[in-house]
Design a protein that fits this description.
about 220 residues, alpha/beta, 2 domains, seven-stranded parallel beta sheet, 9 strands, FBL60-like, F-box_dom, F-box-like_dom_sf, F-box/FBD/LRR-repeat protein
């Protein structure tokens, strides 16, 4: 019996499906995949549909160009569900812009965000209240000099959150406790603080934080 082999030959990169383009671009930073828009008419607006936004200050020469670039990208991005928003900035950055970018992103995507990672080790992070009510958010990784949530915080609802990494020198204890109390599916928890001991409570052991709601925890790391 002779086996038939089906061969598919791509004669041009434009023969790739849009779905595959978006998958490939999602592994790149936003700046790098936006550059592809000048290579082909077909790609001119494709970058707006990539389900990830990744910004790194080190890819830009100065703060002004970086800010303008992020402003434009966040506003023009059109993917309905955003798989991830990743932001890495240096200590020369103005902190108020970060909270505004997160809020704009949430509004533009109707709070359809699955993963958020902010690396701003030397910057005060003021997070919008809306961030803590995203029903599909599964990963939340925050690093900042100080991490606070926009007041007043009355509701926290993160039913899908499985990974929470929280690194800072100072943070709002009440907000973090409210966050922990809403994470029934949390499996990976890391809380680090540079100057003050972070303590927990589970079952009959009482310290400062109560994580008895986090019944699915697999990995737990506390430092400070």
């Amino acid at each position: 019996m002779t086996k038939k082999v089906c061969k598919t030959t791509l004669t041009n990169i434009n023969d790739l499906s849009e779905e595959l383009y978006l998958k490939i671009f999602s592994f790149l930073s936003t700046k790098r995949y936006v550059v592809t828009s000048v290579l082909s008419k077909q790609w001119k607006y494709l970058w707006k549909k990539v389900p990830t936004l990744k910004f790194d200050k080190s890819e830009h020469n100065d703060y002004i160009s970086f800010k303008l670039y992020v402003d434009k990208s966040v506003f023009e991005h059109q993917s309905h569900v955003l798989e991830s928003f990743n932001l890495k900035v240096a200590n020369t950055f103005l902190d108020e812009n970060i909270g505004l970018w997160i809020k704009t992103t949430l509004h533009r995507h109707h709070c359809q965000l699955r993963e958020l990672e902010i690396d701003a080790e030397h910057i005060l992070l003021q997070l919008p209240r809306e961030l803590l009510t995203i029903k599909i958010l599964g990963v939340l990784k925050l690093k900042g000099k100080e991490i606070n949530v926009e007041a007043p915080l009355t509701t926290v609802c993160l039913p899908s959150l499985k990974t929470l990494h929280h690194h800072s020198r100072r943070f709002d204890f009440d907000s973090l406790q409210m966050l922990l109390s809403s994470c029934n599916l949390l499996t990976d928890l890391i809380v680090t603080r540079e100057t003050t001991l972070v303590m927990v409570s589970k079952g009959s052991l009482f310290f400062e934080y109560d994580i008895s709601w986090c019944k699915a925890l697999v990995a737990l790391k506390l430092e400070g």
